[in-house]
Amino acid sequence: MWKKILNIVLNKYFLTTVAFLIWLFFFDSNNAVLRLKLKNQLNELQREKQFYLDEIQKDSILTEKLLNDTAELERFVREKYLMKKENEDVFLVIDTTPDLHQ
User: Fold this and answer.
1) If 88 and its partner were Cys, which of 1, 49, 54, 84 is the partner (CB 3.0–4.6 Å)?
2) How far apart are CA 81 and CA 100, in angstroms?
3) pTM of the predicted model as reported, rounded to 2 decimal places
4) What is the pLDDT of residues 6-29, one digit of tens each?
């Protein structure tokens, strides 16, 4: 039994195939480790792309609202840039209580 296994392992075709597979998986310029890293990087970039596409969609909707609705534009400017009308005071209310959900 051991002699049969030894004959298979020492076969020149088997050794050549094993050497070729080792070369492909570890030493080639497109080795398995590099391909896994590139696949992970590609997945991360695709998630990032989807995030930015969603943000563009949200911003497009907001831009459309701001261009067509003056009340929405006024609300946005007041909240974002703390602008006010004449003879009007703006008070900022800041919550200083600790957040218990963290």
Assistant:
1) 84
2) 29
3) 0.59
4) 777 778 888 898 898 888 888 888
Provide φ and ψ at 47, rounded to 5°. -65, -40
What's the Cα-to-Cα distance from 51 to each of 59, 61, 84, rounded to whole Å?
12, 16, 34
Give how far Cα 98 sits from Cα of 2, 74, 91, 94, 102, Å: 71, 32, 21, 12, 9
**One-letter amino acid for residue 39 of the chain:** K
In order, the DSSP letters of the chain are -HHHHHHHHT-HHHHHHHHHHHIIIIISTT-HHHHHHHHHHHHHHHHHHHHHHHHHHHHHHHHHHHHH-HHHHHHHHHHHH----TT---------SPPTT-
**Distance between CA atoms of residues 28 and 20, nearest Å:** 10
Per the structure block, which two tokens stand in for 24? 């492909």
Q: Tokens for 68?
A: 């067509």
Other C-beta atoms within 10 Å of 74: how many?
Answer: 13
